């Protein structure tokens, strides 16, 4: 991040005012990525989700053998879990998060691309959602080394080092069967964390979601 910051403004010096401006800009970028988790909202959501899901679905079926493998993987020391998921509906993230929480895998952080509603974005951030900084939704390699990309790299490395489960939905919109640009951007951060040896390894877990009738 320090290497990326001076490159943003060739005329900036190393004075205290300049450093303070960069700290403020980095804080702004972090604010776009995440918000403090809300324990109250998390408890409320954990109470409401079963009631919502029982109204949406007659049943939810899990493959027991595959679930046992996931639970064994979650007990692997110092190796974070990254769930790569097919995307079939807008309730996929709620459903998968509830399943992982109910199986004591941990509170997953859902990687999200762009979101048009600021209020809904703020709510999802407080429930564990993490978002790309503005301007990086359709990022290309020319932007990768700029300050938002450097902050995002370090943020993902911190998440992986703390072994928080990450959920990444590959398609956007749901059911498009095409790898979305936001998914490419998030995957690049995970690969860089491995390349820079921020974590010794990452367990990639593919997740397939299917509905008899998609909500």
Automatic annotation (TrEMBL):
Any GO MF annotation of the entry: glycerol-3-phosphate O-acyltransferase activity
GO CC list: mitochondrial membrane
Phospholipid/glycerol acyltransferase domain: residues covered: 81-212
Domain of life, per lineage: Eukaryota
Keyword field contains Acyltransferase: yes
Keyword Acyltransferase: yes
InterPro entries linked: GPAT/DHAPAT, Plipid/glycerol_acylTrfase
PANTHER family reported for this sequence: GLYCEROL-3-PHOSPHATE ACYLTRANSFERASE (PTHR12563), GLYCEROL-3-PHOSPHATE ACYLTRANSFERASE 2, MITOCHONDRIAL (PTHR12563:SF15)
Name of this protein: GPAT2 acyltransferase
């Amino acid at each position: 991040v320090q290497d990326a910051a001076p490159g943003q403004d060739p005329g900036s010096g190393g004075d205290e005012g300049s450093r303070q401006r960069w700290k403020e800009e980095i804080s702004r970028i972090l604010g776009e990525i995440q918000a403090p988790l809300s324990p109250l909202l998390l408890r409320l959501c954990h109470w409401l989700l079963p009631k919502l899901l029982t109204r949406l679905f007659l049943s939810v079926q899990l493959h027991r053998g595959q679930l046992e493998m996931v639970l064994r993987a979650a007990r692997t020391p110092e190796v974070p879990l990254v769930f790569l998921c097919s995307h079939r509906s807008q309730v996929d993230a709620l459903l998968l998060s509830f399943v992982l929480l109910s199986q004591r895998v941990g509170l997953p952080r859902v990687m999200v691309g762009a979101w048009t509603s600021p209020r809904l974005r703020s709510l999802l951030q407080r429930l564990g959602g993490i978002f790309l900084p503005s301007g990086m939704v359709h990022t290309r390699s020319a932007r990768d080394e700029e300050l938002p990309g450097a902050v995002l790299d370090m943020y993902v490395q911190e998440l992986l080092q703390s072994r928080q489960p990450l959920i990444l939905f590959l398609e956007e919109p749901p059911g498009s069967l095409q790898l979305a640009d936001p998914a490419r951007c998030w995957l690049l951060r995970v690969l860089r964390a491995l390349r820079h040896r921020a974590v010794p390894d990452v367990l990639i877990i593919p997740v397939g979601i299917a509905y008899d009738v998609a909500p």
